[in-house]
Amino acid sequence: MKRKTHAKFIEEVREKQGERFIILSKYIDAKTKIYSRCSCCGTTEYKNPWDILKGSCKKCHRVKLSQMHSKTHEEFKTEVEYGGGYLLLSEYRNSKEKVEIKHLVCGNNFFMAPSKFSYGQRCPNCMRPNHNRTHKEFLKQFMFVANGEYEVLGKFSTVENKTLIKHKKCGHEYEVSPHKFINGQRRCPKCANNIKLTQREFEKRVNQIDPDYKVVGKYESVNKKVLLKHKKCGNTWKTKPSNFYNGKRCPKCNASKGELAIEKYLIENDYSYETQYKINQCKLKKPLPFDFAVFLNKSVVLIEFQGEQHYKEKDFFGGETAFKKQKLRDNIKLKYCQDNRIPFIAIPYYEIENIPNILKGFL
Fold first, then answer.
1. pTM summary value
2. d(CA 194, CA 210)
3. 299-352: pLDDT as tens digits
4. Architecture of domain 252-362 in CATH?
5. Domain boundaries, the chain
6. Which has the least CB within 10 A, 265, 274, 298, 363?
7. DSSP-H helix ranges across the chain
């Protein structure tokens, strides 16, 4: 059997989970754990590829559990009837006591624990793999739940075998298991991250992801910058909500956090090192400091953690003028190391959660 490539795994993640997970390290095989970040809560985890494909995230799981146990009847009713496919027929009391639900697509009434519905289980009649259904019957059910937004391009065979459909709004074509689409679990992966939240929903989501941050400005969309405040240091700055979902935090604290993470790794692994290490010959007007020098036998490895100001203009750090000076200093350091064959690691800000893995592979 041909081994799955990293590119193929990324494609599979996007097909199954949309943009929910960002892969931070290279896929090797099904048994080797990799780093991934959940764009819903910003958490980075080291886990098996299969857990990523099935949408497993410990923090989201805990949040979902707490929400599940504190729902009112009206909140659960809204959850069940969202999308128009199901109707709640009995009173909701708690997450374990079964309620009666009607599947409007097939007409089946069934009893199910609310927790199971919240975790994605749906009509047992329609979810059975051997449930006989013709292509015509599938189209009828599909049209009922699709509300004219989707079009079937492929041929239906069974509820488990994927068929090709098209999202008319964005034109994206993708394969999906019929039972997952009918039960409202799989919509367009391309548009999955573009669902607009209300101001209150966004504020709640930011607090769930990281309670150390507060929304100060007006939320418009996932790709329009909004003013946030870091409660611990008091810094306010504008960022795209999508960047916050993907783990980007306070630019003022980010650089120091990166250096702390590097130092923590060096201490835990008993490396001999020095901070703010200077070499007299590597200078602009004065010698330029490297964040860390790690001493390995008779050689030295130089390490830099590079915040956003190393890659783009940031008003907080002095704008265009400061950015040009920063690039000049970075280039001097890089050229000196190359000319003198000194091992040099420059870790970018967006790899802050992956620092232990990077250092492990280099030192």
1. 0.35
2. 21
3. 899 999 988 778 777 665 567 887 888 899 999 999 999 999 999 999 988 888
4. 3-Layer(aba) Sandwich (3.40)
5. 6-57, 64-192, 197-249, 252-362
6. 298
7. 6-17, 49-53, 58-69, 73-81, 114-118, 124-127, 135-146, 178-182, 199-209, 241-245, 251-268, 319-339, 355-362
